[in-house]
Amino acid sequence: MEKTVAAIRHVHFEDLGALEALLQEMGYQIRYYESGVDELPDPVTGAKLAVVLGGPVGVYETEAYPEMASERMWVKTRMEACRPTVGICLGAQLMAAALGTEVGRMNQKEIGFAPLELTAAGRRGPLRHLEGIPVLHWHGDSFAIPVGAEHLAVTNLCRNQAFALGPRMLGLQFHVEVDGGSWFERWLLGHAVELAGAGIDPRELRRQAARWREQLRRAARAMFADWLSGITDC
C-alpha cells in the first residue's frame, strides 16, 4: 500500500500541526477528511495510516452528533484489521470507546501546557522523547485504558493520558501536534468561548506556547518518527 495518511478532522484548526511536515518528509501523502461532511475512506484499505484528530464534542453524544457513532465503528473496523491508527484527544477517546472501554466527563477541564509522568511502559517506548517536556492538554473528557493495552502516561489531573495496543495503535489524550507559535492563535480564537467559560487567560497559554515551542517541536517529531519506524506486522 502507498504511504498515505487519512487525517480525520473535526474542526478545521485542529489539524496535524507540527506532525504534518514530518509525515511529508517521510514520504507520506496526506488527505484530510472533514467529519460529518466527507465520506471516509475504506477503514481497512483506504490509507496506510489513519490519524483521528481532536474536537469539541464527546464520543457519547451520539444523539446530538450521529457522526460519533459512525466514526467509532470506522475506527473499530480499522483496529480489528490491525491497521496503523493514531488517535489524538477525541481521536484517542474514539479508539478507547471502539475497544469497549469507558469514556466520560472529568471533574474539571485540563487546559494548558504541562509535562507528562511516564509509566514504565511509556519510558520504554517512543513517548520517552516527551519526558519532562510540557505538552498541550485541552480536554474535559477522559478514557479508561482498554483491556490489553499498555498504559503509557499520566498527569495529576488525568491519570490516563496515553495507551498503546501493540505496535500499530496509539491513543494520546494530549496534543503532541501543537507546538505553539502564530499557528496556535487559531486555537485560542477558535476556543475563545471555552477558555472564557473555564476562566483561563489566553495570554498565559500564549506565553507557555512561546516558551516551549522549539523544545516541544523537536520532542514531538522524535516521538512520532520513532513510533512510525516501529510499526510492524500484527
Give a written overview of the molecule:
It is a single chain. The protein is of the alpha/beta class and about 230 residues long. The protein has one domain: Rossmann fold (3-Layer(aba) Sandwich), CATH 3.40.50.880. It is built from 7 helices and 10 strands. The chain has helices at about 20-25, 65-80, 90-100, 120-125, 185-190, 190-200, 200-230; strands at about 5-10, 30-35, 50, 85-90, 105-115, 115-120, 135-145, 150-155, 160-165, 170. The strands form 2 sheets. Strands 2-1-3-4-10-9-8-6 form an 8-stranded mixed beta sheet, with helices on both faces. β8 and β9 (about 160-165) form a beta hairpin. The chain is globular.
Radius of gyration: 16 Å
Task: Supply the CATH class.
Answer: Alpha Beta
**Fraction of residues in helices?**
25-40%
Query: Spans with pLDDT under 50 lasting ≥5 residues?
Result: none
CATH superfamily: Class I glutamine amidotransferase (GATase) domain
CATH architecture descriptor text:
3-Layer(aba) Sandwich
